[in-house]
Specification:
GO terms for molecular function: GTP binding; GTPase activity; ribosome binding; translation elongation factor activity. The chain is of the alpha+beta class and about 700 residues long. It has 18 helices and 26 strands. Among the domains are: about 90 residues, Translation factors (Elongation Factor Tu (Ef-tu), domain 3, Beta Barrel), CATH 2.40.30.10; about 70 residues, Alpha-Beta Plaits (2-Layer Sandwich); about 160 residues, Ribosomal Protein S5, domain 2 (2-Layer Sandwich), CATH 3.30.230; about 80 residues, Alpha-Beta Plaits (2-Layer Sandwich), CATH 3.30.70.240; about 50 residues, no CATH class. Helix 12 runs antiparallel to helix 13.
C-alpha cells in the first residue's frame, strides 16, 4: 500500500498534468483568435506585464467558455464493469438491450460481421463508438486509453444508445445481462406541468434525461395528456422533482398532489355484522327507505337474481346477456400479477393465429412456461364452482393482461386463450362475429370500476347466457316491412290514373309491377347487410360493448364491494425509550405492526410493520420529530390489501343502531379514500355538509 506522502505526490502530479492539458487547449483557442486591441497595446511593455495580461485574458476566456458549456450541456457518463477482454478508446462495439435475443437475431447477420460493417436492422441492437473512457476518482475523472477486465469505469457518449441499462460486446452472439432489479417498485405518481406553457419542450427533454439518469423512476404520458412521474416514495419523489427543476429541465414546474392508486374488488358475503353478531339471527329494524334506495339503484330492464346473476338486453332487444361476478382466490390473483408478461405474449400469439398470419415459430421455452402457468391455475382453481374454469377462460383484463378473468359458460361457443398451445378451434357460428365486442366490454369494465373508476383486481366474470336473434330472422322482418312500405307508396302513386279505360289500366298496372320488382329487390339487397349492423341505436357491436360493460358493473354491485389499498412494508430501528411514540405514530396512520425484535448486543429494536401508501406522506418527518431523531423508517412497496370496512355500509339492525347511532357518522376509512378519489376525478360525491347548524360554543376560558 502507498504511504500518505506518496499518495499526496501522485495527486500533485495528476493536478499538474490536468493543468498542462487545460493550458494547451486554451493556448490553441487563443492562437486561433484574431489579435485584439489589448495585445497591440501591450507590445511596448516589458515581458512580465505581457505574461500577466495574457494569463488574465486566458482566465477570463476559459471562465466564460466553462459557464457557457455548463449552461448548454450536461453529459452522461455510463457506469460500467469490464467482464472479459480489454476496452479501448475509439473502439466500435455492439450495444445490446435487455430484450435482445441472439437466437432470433443471429440468422439476420453474417457469421463474420463486426460493428464496423453496415448491418441490417435488428431489434434491440445498435452499434456505437466508445468516445471517452474515464477512471472514476470521486469527483475527478481521469482520461484512459484502455481498461482491462475486472475494472469499473465510466464511458462517455452513450446517452443516445442506452436508456437504463445495456450490454456492450464486440460480438452479436453475446447474450445480454439481465437488467438490474430494484426492490423498490414505483408506486407514487404525480402529474407535472411547466408554470409557463412555452417551457413545455424543456420539461419534456428534462423528463427524458431524468428517466435515463434514475433507474427506479418511470416517466409516462397518460391518456389525458398529462406528463406523469412514478416514483418509489415520498423522499424519492422530492429528489426527482428537485433534479428536474435544477439540473435537467431548469424550468419552474407545478406539481399535482400525489396520485395514490387503489384497486376495486369483491368479497364473499360476511358472516358477522359490524358489532360481531351473526347475520340473520338478530332482529332487523324496518329500514324501509334503505330498501327503496337499493331498488332505485338498478334501472328498469335489468334483472338481478338473489345469487347475483345479472340479465340485461341490448337497446335494440336483439341480444341478451347474463353475467355473474365472483371473487378469485388470492393465490390466483397473485399468480396472474406475476405472469402478466407471459399473458401478454399469449395474447400476441393468439392474435397472430386468429388473423392467419404466418407467425414465427413459437419458442419451446415459452410454450413450456405457458403449460406450467396453466397447470398452476388448475391447481389453484379447484372445487365445484371452478370446474373446467381454466379451459373456459375467454380473456384476461384490463388491457388483456391484468388480474381479472372472463369465463364463458354457455353452449354453442368455444374459444380459449390457450389457442397457442395447439388446441385451436375453427368454427363459424352466430357468436363468432361479435365475440370481440363482449371482450372489449369486459376490458372497459375492468379498467374502471363502479366505486371510483379505479381498475378491478381479483374478480372473475362468467357469461352464463348469450342469446342472439338469428341474422336471417332479423333481416327478413326488416325487409318485409320495407317491401310493404314500397308497395303501399306505389299504390298511392297509381290511384290518380283510375279514370282511364280498363285495357290501358291493366297495361299500366302490368308495367308498374314489372318496374317495381327490380327496384324493391335492389333496395332490399342494399339494406340487407346494414340492418343487423346498424339501427337507430347505432352499430350492433357497439351496443354489445356497452351492454357487456353495464352487465359487469351491475354484477359487481350485486356483491359486497371493497377497496384495495397499496401497502408499504415499513422497517423502523428505534431505541427502547421511544418505542411508545413509534407505535402511536403507526396506529394514527392505520399502520399494523407485524414483528418486533431486539438486535443482539444493542438496545435497538427492529420493528416490521405495514402501512398504507395513502397514509405515508409526512410519515418519516413525523416519526423523526416525535422521537427526536432516534427512530428512522425504511419504506418499500409490498402488496395490495383489501380494506375490511364496507364503503357503503349503513346500520340495519337494532344492535348496530345502538352502537353507531342513526347517522353512523363515525370514521369509515374506505369511504374516506373512495370520496377523495371521486373528488379528484370530478365524479359525484354523496356528502351531507351541515344538517342542523348550531351556535358554536367558545372553547376559551371565561375571564
Amino acid at each position: 500500500p502507498l504511504t500518505q506522502e506518496e499518495i499526496a505526490h501522485r495527486r500533485e502530479l495528476a493536478k499538474q498534468r490536468h493543468a498542462e492539458k487545460l493550458a494547451a487547449s486554451q493556448g490553441k483557442e487563443l492562437s486561433e483568435k484574431p489579435p485584439s486591441e489589448n495585445s497591440s497595446e501591450v507590445t511596448g511593455n516589458t515581458g512580465d506585464t505581457k505574461e500577466q495580461q495574457l494569463s488574465g485574458q486566458v482566465e477570463s476566456v476559459t471562465s466564460k467558455a466553462m459557464k457557457q458549456e455548463a449552461d448548454s450541456k450536461e453529459s452522461f457518463i455510463a457506469f460500467a464493469r469490464v467482464f472479459s477482454g480489454v476496452v479501448q478508446k475509439g473502439q466500435k462495439i455492439f450495444v445490446l438491450g435487455p430484450k435482445y435475443d441472439p437466437a432470433e437475431s443471429l440468422h439476420k447477420l453474417s457469421s463474420q460481421c463486426s460493428a464496423t460493417n453496415d448491418l441490417p436492422l435488428v431489434p434491440h441492437m445498435t452499434c456505437c463508438t466508445l468516445e471517452n473512457l474515464y477512471l472514476l476518482m470521486g469527483r475527478e475523472l481521469e482520461d484512459l486509453e484502455e481498461v482491462p477486465a475486472g475494472n469499473v469505469l465510466g464511458i462517455g457518449g452513450l446517452q443516445d444508445f442506452v436508456l437504463k441499462s445495456a450490454t456492450l460486446s464486440t460480438s452479436p452472439a453475446c447474450p445480454p445481462f439481465t437488467p438490474l432489479n430494484f426492490e423498490a417498485t414505483p408506486i407514487v405518481r404525480v402529474a407535472v406541468e411547466p408554470k409557463h406553457p412555452s417551457d413545455m419542450p424543456q420539461l419534456v427533454r428534462g423528463m427524458k434525461l431524468l428517466n435515463q439518469a434514475d433507474p427506479c423512476v418511470q416517466v409516462l404520458i397518460q391518456e389525458t395528456g398529462e406528463h406523469v412521474l412514478v416514483t418509489a416514495g415520498e423522499v424519492h419523489l422530492q429528489r426527482c422533482l428537485d433534479d428536474l427543476k435544477e439540473r435537467f429541465a431548469k424550468v419552474e414546474i407545478s406539481v399535482s398532489a400525489p396520485i395514490i392508486p387503489f384497486r376495486e374488488t369483491i368479497t364473499r358475503p360476511p358472516k358477522v355484522d359490524m358489532v360481531n353478531e351473526e347475520i340473520g339471527k338478530q332482529q332487523k329494524v324496518a329500514v324501509i327507505h334503505q330498501a327503496k334506495e337499493d331498488q332505485n339503484k338498478i334501472p328498469e330492464g335489468i334483472q338481478v337474481d338473489s345469487d347475483g346473476l345479472v340479465t340485461i338486453s341490448t337497446p335494440n332487444k336483439q341480444a341478451t346477456l347474463s353475467v355473474r361476478a365472483m371473487p378469485l382466490p388470492e393465490e390466483v390473483t397473485k399468480l396472474l400479477e406475476e405472469n402478466s408478461d407471459l399473458i401478454r405474449t399469449m395474447e400476441q400469439l393468439n392474435t397472430s393465429l386468429n388473423e392467419d398470419k404466418k407467425s414465427h415459430e413459437i419458442n419451446q421455452k415459452t410454450l413450456d412456461r405457458i403449460k406450467e402457468f396453466k397447470q398452476k391455475l388448475e391447481q389453484n382453481l379447484q372445487g365445484r364452482k371452478w370446474r373446467n374454469a381454466v379451459d373456459q377462460i375467454w380473456s384476461f383484463g384490463p388491457r388483456k393482461c391484468g388480474p381479472n378473468i372472463l369465463l364463458y359458460n354457455f353452449e354453442g361457443y368455444k374459444r380459449s386463450v390457450w389457442q397457442c398451445l395447439g388446441n385451436t378451434v375453427r368454427e363459424v357460428n352466430k357468436y363468432r362475429d361479435f365475440d370481440n365486442s363482449i371482450v372489449s366490454g369486459f376490458q372497459l369494465a375492468t379498467l374502471s370500476g363502479p366505486m371510483c373508476e379505479e381498475p378491478l383486481m381479483g374478480v372473475c366474470f362468467t357469461v352464463e347466457k348469450w342469446e342472439i336473434n338469428k341474422v336471417g330472422e332479423m333481416t327478413s322482418s326488416q325487409d318485409s316491412g320495407e317491401c310493404d312500405a314500397i308497395e303501399h307508396k306505389q299504390n298511392e302513386d297509381t290511384t290518380p290514373a283510375s279514370s282511364c279505360t280498363d285495357e290501358v289500366c291493366s297495361a299500366n298496372e302490368h308495367q308498374d309491377s314489372s318496374q317495381s320488382v327490380p327496384k324493391s329487390s335492389e333496395k332490399i339487397s342494399k339494406h340487407k347487410g346494414e340492418v343487423l349492423l346498424a339501427d337507430c341505436y347505432g352499430p350492433f357491436s357497439g351496443q354489445l360493448i356497452a351492454t357487456m360493460k353495464e352487465a359487469c358493473r351491475y354484477a359487481l354491485q350485486a356483491k359486497p364491494q371493497r377497496l384495495m389499498a397499496a401497502m408499504y412494508t415499513c422497517e423502523i430501528m428505534a431505541t427502547a425509550e421511544v418505542l411508545g411514540r413509534v407505535y402511536a405514530v403507526l396506529s394514527k396512520r392505520e399502520g399494523r405492526v407485524l414483528q418486533e425484535e431486539m438486535k443482539e448486543g444493542t438496545d435497538v429494536f427492529i420493528i416490521k410493520a405495514v402501512l398504507p401508501v395513502a397514509e405515508s406522506f409526512g410519515f418519516a418527518d413525523e416519526i423523526r420529530k416525535r422521537t427526536s431523531g432516534l427512530a428512522s423508517p425504511q419504506l418499500v412497496f409490498s402488496h395490495w390489501e383489501i380494506i375490511s370496512s364496507d364503503p357503503f355500509w349503513v346500520p340495519t339492525t337494532e344492535e348496530e343502531y345502538l352502537h353507531f347511532g342513526e347517522k353512523a357518522d363515525s370514521e369509515n376509512q374506505a369511504r374516506k379514500y373512495m370520496n377523495a378519489v371521486r373528488k379528484r376525478k370530478g365524479l359525484y360525491v354523496e356528502e351531507k355538509i351541515v344538517e342542523h347548524a348550531e351556535k358554536q360554543r367558545t372553547l376559551s376560558r371565561n375571564k
